[in-house]
UniProtKB/TrEMBL annotation:
Keywords, sorted A to Z: Isomerase
InterPro entries: ClpP/crotonase-like_dom_sf, Enoyl-CoA_hydra/iso
Domain of life: Bacteria
Pfam families the UniProt entry points to: ECH_1
PANTHER family assigned to the protein according to its UniProt record, in alphabetical order: ENOYL-COA HYDRATASE, MITOCHONDRIAL, ENOYL-COA HYDRATASE-RELATED
One GO term (biological process): fatty acid beta-oxidation
Statement: the UniProt record of this protein carries the keyword Isomerase: yes
Protein name: Enoyl-CoA hydratase/isomerase family protein
The keyword Isomerase appears for this protein: yes
Molecular-function annotations in GO: isomerase activity
Length: 262
């Protein structure tokens, strides 16, 4: 496993860890950071990897405060390069969102602009009680570039999203929880422990089962209900025949924990 900065990739049992490791730059996102996240997903999703859940976390005081503006300034003189910078960020965040593995984020301090977009591409979010969420693009004549304009309205509703975009204000952890941006709020000194314990629990589940549920929820979201229901019927009819279901039913009958092989 790689331990090189700007991202540290590691494993703890069945949990693959992607750790932003630029605390001196508030874990801002660069091409190298996105490339490291993509490399981690390649490794964790590979057959036989043993990884069944992914935890995205960050070193230092803040989760992520956005794009690396030094890199943006350098790339703006070359339109093709800035287009690649934006497109590649989209590709990587869409990979997180579409990964067959559950992706959990553990966020402390600030998640701003590109950092908020990274957070929103994850499936489940733990936030520390000192967490703050915001989009400051409008304050500097910018616009969201890595999916924020599309994901935020889908999560919190159009009116709340536009207010956050227009005002560039931050919201605290309790508001983020009330609006559905984060799933859990915990004390800062418990964030690492609680988020890892959650991921370890996911790692005890059927990889096939979790992947199927994620696929159905993600794919069905933007389809008419009848098409989503049809998608579910087709998939469940197939998945009920797999070995993990056989193990789950046997474990239920024997009143023991299941041991999944997928």
């Amino acid at each position: 496993m790689s331990t090189d900065k700007p991202v540290r990739i590691s494993r703890e049992g069945g949990v693959g860890v992607i750790e932003l490791a630029r605390p001196d730059k508030f874990n801002c996102l660069s091409l190298a950071v996105h490339a490291a996240i993509a490399e981690a997903l390649d490794e964790f999703e590979a057959p036989g990897s043993g990884v069944r859940a992914v935890l995205v976390r960050a070193q230092g005081k803040h989760f992520c405060t956005g794009a690396d503006l030094d890199e943006v300034k350098h790339l703006r003189s070359r339109p093709a390069d800035i287009e690649h910078f934006i497109r590649y960020g989209h590709v990587v965040l869409q990979r997180l969102e579409a990964s067959s593995l559950p992706v959990v984020a553990a966020c402390q301090g600030l998640a701003l602009a590109g950092g908020s977009e990274l957070m929103m591409a994850c499936d489940v979010v733990f936030a520390s009680s000192d967490f703050r969420f915001g989009d400051q693009h409008a304050q500097y004549g910018l616009v969201p570039g890595w999916g924020g304009s599309q994901r935020l309205p889908r999560i919190v509703g159009v009116r709340r999203a536009l207010d956050l975009f227009y005002s560039a204000r931050w919201i605290d952890a309790s508001t983020a929880f009330a609006w559905g941006l984060v799933n859990y709020v915990v004390e800062p000194d418990k964030l690492a422990e609680v988020s890892m314990a959650y991921c370890a629990q996911l790692a005890s589940r059927s990889r096939i089962g979790l992947a199927t549920m994620k696929h159905l929820a993600r794919q069905g979201l933007d389809q008419p209900l009848n098409e989503g229901l049809e998608l579910e019927q087709v998939r469940i009819s197939r998945e009920l025949l797999n070995d993990d279901v056989s193990e789950g039913l046997a474990a239920f009958e024997a009143r023991r924990p299941p041991v999944f092989k997928s």
